[in-house]
Amino acid sequence: MSVCILDLRGLGRRLRRLPPWYSLYGWFKVRLDPVYALVLGELGGDGLSVVDLGSGMGLLEALLLEQRPHARVLAVELDQRKVQVAELLLSDLPGVRLERGDALSAGLGAPDAILLIDLLHYFTDQDQRSLLARCASALNPGGVLLVRELDGTAERGAVTRSLERVAVRLGWNRAPRVNPRPIAEMRAQLEADGLRVSVRPAGRGPFSGNALLVARKGC
Questions:
Q1: What CA–CA distances, in Å, run from 125 to 76, 166, 185?
Q2: Rounded to two decimals, what is the model's pTM?
Q3: Nearest alpha carbon to residue 180 among 205, 206, 154
Q4: By CB distance 3.0 to 4.6 Å, which of 102, 175, 180, 196 could disulfide with 150?
Q5: Nearest partner of 26 among 2, 49, 60, 51, judged by Cα
Q6: In this model, does residue 210 exceed pLDDT 80?
Q7: Could you state, in order of their start, the residue ranges of all structural domains in the chain?
C-alpha cells in the first residue's frame, strides 16, 4: 500500500497552515518515510478507534482521517511545540482529540489500534516493557498494536541510532536518552502476552535499522 496522491493533496493543503520549517519537514517526511503507508495498511476500516502515543505533529492523524473520516483518534504528545503544530494541522478534524501528556501514564481505554511510532527508545528498559504490556492488555479483541522501532542489536541500525541521538542533542526530539532494545526481545514479550506478531522492515537508506512490529490480539 502507498500513500495515494489524494491523501498527499489533502495533507499539502493542511501543511500550508504551518510555519515554513514544519511544513517542509512534514511534506518530505511523509514522502520519504515508509511507515505511514505501512501503518495505514495495517489498520481496519472506517469507524475504528485509535490511540497514538507520541503522535508528534499529527502527520499520521491527518493521513488516517483523510482515508477514514469516521475514525476516532486520541493523539498523545509530550512536546508542547509539536502539540501546537498538530492543533494547526488538525483543527478541522472532529475525529481527533489531542492531549499533551506522557505516554507512560496516558489513559488508553479499549481501542482497536495502538500506535507506538519511534517512541519506545526514549524510555528505560523497564518502562518499555511496562508500556508494551499495558498496550497489549488495553487492546480490544481483534485489535492491533503497531510498534516502529530501532533495532538495538542489528548492525544495519548503527547509523539509524546515531541519527536519532543527533536529533535528541539538537532538541528536535526532546528526551533524556536514546535506548533501543532488540526487536527480538520486544517480539518475544508481545507473543508471551498472547499477541500474534510479525516484523517487517520499516525504513530506507540511513534509517534502514527501523522495523515495524505488527502485534494482533486474538478475538
A1: 21, 21, 11
A2: 0.90
A3: 154
A4: 180
A5: 60
A6: yes
A7: 5-217
